[in-house]
Structure formats: C-alpha cells, structure tokens
C-alpha cells in the first residue's frame, strides 16, 4: 500500500518541475545544516536522476551569480539536462586518474561542498547490498581527502545495513566527532533504510 506522505512528495516534485522527489531530501539537509553556505565550487557524485543538480542550480540563482561559481557532476550515466554553471561528465568516480585530470582541466584544486546520493544496484540481500554500498563510499572517500577544504562540508547517502556503524565511527575519527552527524529527511520514503552522513562546520 502506498504511503500518502510518500506520494505527496512525488506529486510535489512533478508540480515544481523536479525530475525526482530526492530534491527535497537535499533541501531539508541544506536548511538544517546550511550545507551550501558560502560555497563556490560544488561536486555532485552519482547524481542521477539529477534533481539534486536542479536544486543546487536553483539555489545558486537565488543567492546571486557572484557566489556559486561551478558545479561539477560525475555519474556513470550521461545527463540530458542543461543547467546554469553545471558541468557534467559521464565518468566513473572510482577512476581516480581521469577524475583528477577533469578537475585539473577546470582548474579545481579544492572543493567547498561534496554531495552524493549514489546507491548500488541492489539484489535484495542485505549483506551483499551493504557491502556494495560501503565499497562505493570507501572508493569515493579518497576524493574527500584530496579535494575537500578543511571547512568544507559533505552529505553522503548510506544505507543502515551491516558495517554502517563502522563507517560512521571511522568518519568521526577522521573529521572530528562533533562534525559528523546522521540525518534522515522527512522526504525519505518511510520504509527506506537510507540515511545521510553530514559533515557540518
């Protein structure tokens, strides 16, 4: 049976011309933690179906053209939408040499905010799906270590499957305990095991 609250967000997304309801997850995170405050360069990892890009682009337009300078997007799927100040690449984020070259070509050496709504293709077996999810995150964390500014922030989607607590513990050790929090937006589906790890500042 469809939850009416879940359906409300889907209908709202269509009404407001978002490609997916997930835009409201990022909106909630941003409003609660001021995720994009003073952000000039933003990296969006694995952003299909691209509603996060839409939200970030709209936010940049609201705050003025002199703040948000560039949004870089990486996904294994090509994107078919054009948005102001958004540059998109159909590129595997785990291929570090190519990702580094692309960022260098754009003269990007540090990043203010990294967001990731990525998820593996699931098969319905929690252990295997959990391992795939954690593996993807660990592969991309090298990007955070290399490019994220000291005061930079991130929002990463994870699933509360096995090894979730270990990942939280490791991130809190790396980025100071008080800076790492978990948050489940109201716009997430009620039965979903997804949750977001936030690095605030």
Can you describe this structure?
The chain has 201 residues and is of the alpha/beta class. It has a single domain (4-199), classed as 3-Layer(aba) Sandwich (Rossmann fold), CATH 3.40.50.150. It is built from six helices and seven strands. The protein has helices at 4-15, 23-33, 51-63, 96-105, 126-147, 164-175, and strands spanning 41-45, 70-75, 86-90, 111-116, 148-159, 180-183, 194-199. A seven-stranded mixed sheet has the order 3-2-1-4-5-7-6, with helices on both faces. The mean pLDDT is 84.
Gyration radius, to the nearest Å? 16 Å
Structural class, please? alpha/beta
Strand content: 15-25%
Average predicted local confidence, pLDDT: 84
Number of domains: 1
CATH topology: Rossmann fold
Number of helices: 6
Query: Which CATH-level-2 architecture?
Result: 3-Layer(aba) Sandwich
Low-confidence stretches: none
CATH superfamily: Vaccinia Virus protein VP39
What helical percentage do the residues reach?
A: 25-40%
- Element-by-element helix/strand order: HHEHEEHEHEHEE
End-to-end separation in angstroms reads 40 Å
* Main CATH class: Alpha Beta
Number of strands: 7
The order of strands across the largest sheet is 3-2-1-4-5-7-6
The gross shape turns out to be globular
């Amino acid at each position: 049976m469809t939850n009416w609250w879940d359906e409300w967000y889907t209908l709202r997304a269509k009404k407001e011309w978002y490609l997916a309801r997930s835009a409201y997850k990022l909106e909630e995170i941003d409003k609660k933690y001021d995720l994009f405050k003073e952000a000039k360069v933003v990296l969006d990892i694995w952003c299909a179906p691209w509603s996060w890009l839409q939200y970030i682009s709209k936010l940049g337009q609201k705050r003025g053209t002199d703040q948000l300078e560039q949004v870089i997007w990486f996904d294994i799927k090509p994107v078919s939408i054009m948005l102001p100040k958004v540059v998109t690449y159909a590129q595997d984020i785990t291929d570090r040499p190519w990702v580094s070259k692309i960022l260098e070509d754009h003269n990007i050496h540090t990043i203010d905010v990294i967001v990731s709504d990525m998820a593996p293709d699931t098969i319905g077996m929690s252990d295997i799906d959990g391992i795939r999810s954690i593996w993807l995150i660990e592969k991309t964390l090298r990007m955070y270590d290399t490019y994220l500014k000291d005061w930079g922030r991130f929002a990463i989607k994870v699933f509360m499957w096995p090894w979730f607590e270990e990942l939280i513990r490791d991130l809190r050790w790396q980025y100071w305990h008080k800076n790492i929090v978990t948050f489940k937006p109201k716009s997430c589906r009620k039965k979903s095991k997804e949750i977001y790890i936030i690095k605030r500042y």
